[in-house]
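Internal ticket - ligand job 133, protoporphyrin IX containing FE:
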Amino acid sequence: MGMESKMFSYSEVSAHNSSEDCWIIINSKVYNVTSFLNDHPGGDDVLLGQAGKDASEEFEDVGHGSAARLMLDEFYVGEVDPALNRPTTTTNTALAPAIDIKHNSPKSNNKFLYFLLALTVIVFGVETGESAT
Ligand code: HEM
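stdout (structure tokens):
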């Protein structure tokens, strides 16, 4: 019964995307709502529409009351790892695998690689600028 919470990546959560196994993310917390699908006052279809995804905005937009917020604890299974956090737009995630291949550690921090890339661009920019003058 440790206090530490289980960490999941977005791709791990996204595998739980069916009516037999339905996880959703709300405000960086992961909820297993499989058993709640039939009981949700807003219907199972809206939950299944968000299955395996970040439903923070959708959850807030509905204006869920305190009853709904209190229920969240019941379904809590862990958190999404901030280091593996990505926007829900699919465009950016496409970059991640290509960068991971270049790095031998699976725990590699892509932010650091992006920083190095930015630094390289800046340094080359300055060099080019200097030689042009
Ligand atoms: C674990 C997550 C969720 C829980 C525990 C939950 C719980 C509830 C509860 C208790 C209500 C009744 C009204 C209230 O108390 O505010 C409700 C209504 C509703 N929920 Fe959720 N909800 C969850 C996620 C979602 C998501 C992700 C969506 C949208 C994609 C959604 C859409 C709705 C809608 C549209 C209603 C209104 C139904 C109506 O008034 O006819 N819910 N929800």
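Auto-summary: Residues 24, 31, 33, 40-42, 46-47, 50, 55, 58-59, 62, 64-65, 67-68, 71-72, 75 surround protoporphyrin IX containing FE (CB under 6 Å). The two ends are 65 Å apart (CA to CA).
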